[in-house]
Structure formats: C-alpha cells, structure tokens
Task: structure prediction
Amino acid sequence: EVQLVESGGGLVQAGGSLRLSCAASRSSADDYVIGWFRQAPGKEREGISCISISEGTTWYSDSVAGRFTISSDFAKKTVYLQMNSLKPEDTAVYYCAPLSGACLFGYVAVTAYKYDRWGQGTQVTVSS
Result:
C-alpha cells in the first residue's frame, strides 16, 4: 500500500491561504484515489476532498467547496490541497489517505471511518 506524508500546515489569519502537500512513497501512486481528511479537537474525522490520480475526477464536501482545490502532480507523486478564504472553523489536523474505491462521497466516508494507517497529519490553525 502507498505510504503518504502530509506537510504544509501552519498558522494563518482568517481569509488567508495555505497549500497542503501529500507525498506518496511508491512509484505507482498514479493509479490511486487520494482523499484529504481533517479532524478538529473533540470532533470526528471528516473527509473533505478526493482526487482520482489517473482520471482527474474530484469531489469536495459542502464545507470546503468553492474555497479548496485538490490537484496532483504525477512527476512529484504528490497531491496538493490549496486552501483559500480560510475560516477559524477550518482549524484541524489535516490528513491524506488512499481510498478503497472511486472518488465519491461514499468511499470518502468509509475511509474516514475505517482507515487505520493514518499518518501524523499537518496542523492548520486559522485565527480570527
């Protein structure tokens, strides 16, 4: 299974931007569907976006649609999450993980619940 490492988090003021990176460790990562997830203190982990590396299809949760953009770079084996117009409620630890199926809400939800190989994630803190 592909190993993923998140980076790019930080402290930003409301309205600001950050770009998160999810770097894959194996050369065949281009056939994967990768999702971004986040977990705020005291809340369950939620899926917010995914991308099919080979097909380019994407999905966003209602909470981030229109503000976040997911993309991938074949050569760098990296998936990015560009986050604009950040809000204090976006404060969370952000994780990436491979999905077991297509880039669809159902597979994102299952992964958020069942995936057991989460990395350390990257902290995003948005101040008001």
Observations:
- The mean pLDDT is 93.
